[in-house]
Amino acid sequence: MKRRFNRGSLQLVLALGLLAAVSGAHAVGGVSSDASGPRPIAVDRHGNVGYATAEDCDAAVAAGTAIFYTPATTKPPLRRSGAYESQTLTIADLVEAEDAAERLGYNPADYPNGACDRGIGRAGNRDGVAGPLIGTWVPYRATMPVNVYYDVRGNIARASMAQCDNNFAAAVPRPIPSAEVPVAILPEPPPMAPAPPAPVPPPVGPGLGSLIGIGAAVGGIIAIIDNNNDRSDPPPVSP
After folding, report:
1. pLDDT per residue over 28-51, tens digit each?
2. Which positions ≥6 away from 86 have C-beta within 8 Å?
3. In this structure, how many other beta carbons lie within 10 angstroms of the beta carbon of residue 175?
C-alpha cells in the first residue's frame, strides 16, 4: 500500500528541508555565522524563519541573508476599540508613528531599514505568527504592506500585517536600528618646526637729519672760537 501525503504534511517536509539547507549552507566548509550572517533557529511550513535574538535578526538583514516574512492567509482589517480610521501603508511609512514607536523605546526614523519583531500567537481575534516562530525574532522587509490604525487625534495607534491582519508583538513592530557611523579620528599633524629668526638688517649710515645736526654742531664750535678771538686784548697804543 502506498502512503499518501496530504498538502500540510508536504509543506512541513519542504519547510524542514529549507531549514536544513539554510543551516547546512553555514556549516559546509566551516563557514561561520559571522561570514554569512546568523542562521535561523526556526521555520514554519511556509518557509518563514525566526532568529534567536533581535541582534541576530538585525545582522542577517544587514548581511543580506535574511528570509523576510511572507503572510500565507488573507483577512480584512479589524478595527478595535480606539481605532477610528485605517489605511494601508508600508513598514517604512511607520516613520509617522512617532508616539506609538517612542512609547516602546523605538526610533521611528529607523523604519526604512525594515523590522525584526518578536513572534507572538493569536490575540485580539487575530493571529500572530505560526507556532514554530513564536518567541523568535522574525524579519520584515521595509516595503511590506501594513494596516495602519489611527486614533481620534489622527495619530497612528497600531499596525498589523496588511494581507492577513496578523498582529505584531506590540502596537508597532520593532524597527531595525540604523548602524552607527564611526567617526574618523584624524592623526594629529606633526609639530611645526620653529620659525627661523628674522634677519638683522645691516647698520644704516647717518641720515640727512644726522648730517644736519653734525653740521650745526660744527658751526657752533666755529662761532665760539671766533667770539673768543674777538675778545682778545687790543694791540698796545703807540706813545
Report:
1. 333 334 447 899 999 999 999 999
2. 77, 79, 147, 148, 149, 150
3. 28
Within-domain flag for 38:
yes
Statement: the pTM of the whole predicted model exceeds 0.70: no
**Residue 169 CA, distance from chain mean position:** 25
Q: How many residues would you count in the chain?
A: 239
Residue identified by cell 516562530 is 133
Cα-based angle 224, 225, 228 (whole degrees, multiple of 5) = 85
**What's the grid cell of residue 98?**
512617532
Q: How far apart are CA 165 and CA 126, in angstroms?
A: 7
Please give the tally of structural domains in the chain. Answer: 1
In a domain, 190, yes or no: no
CB-count burial class (<10 Å; 0-12, 13-18, 19+) for 134: middle
